[in-house]
Amino acid sequence: MNKRCIYCEKLSIEALVELAKISFEAQRFSQDAYYQHHDSFSALEQSAYNGCDLCQVILQCFQQTPCEAEQPLEWPQEWNEMTNASLDGFPHTMYSVAKGLDISDVKLCINTSHLYDSQGLRDVRVFDEIVVQVGTLHIETDENYGVWSFPSLVLRLSTPKDQAVYVETFRIGRFEVDPDLGSLTNHQLAKEWLTECCHHHESCLSHQMHELPSRVIDVGSSPNERSVRLFLSHGLEADYVALSHCWGGAISPLLTTESTAIFQQNIDIEVLPANFRDAITITRHLGIRYLWIDSLCIQQDSKSDWEIESKRMGLVYRNSTVTISAMVSGHSKSGILKTSQSAQSFGASTTLDVVVGNDDTFKVTVRRKNLQEENLISLDRRSALAERGWTLQEYILSPRHLLYGQEMIYWRCPQGFKSSDGLPPGNNSPHTIYEDAAQVIFSDILRHVEAVPPDIDAIFRDYSELVNAYSQRKLTYGSDKLPAFSGLAQRLHPAIGGEYLAGIWSANFRQGLLWTAEMKFCQHVNEPYRAPSWSWAVTDDLVLFEGPQYSINPRVPDNPYGEILSAKLVVEALTKPLVRSRQVVETILDPNSIGTAKFDEPAGPEDSVPMGWASLFRMKTEGGDYILSIITRPGDDADWEVDFHYFREDEYLLMLVYTEDDVAGDDETEWSQSPAFCLILRQTSDESQETYERVGFAKLQELRLRWLKTWERCVLTLV
Question: Which residue ranges does the record assign to the Heterokaryon incompatibility domain (predicted)?
Answer without folding.
Answer: 240-394
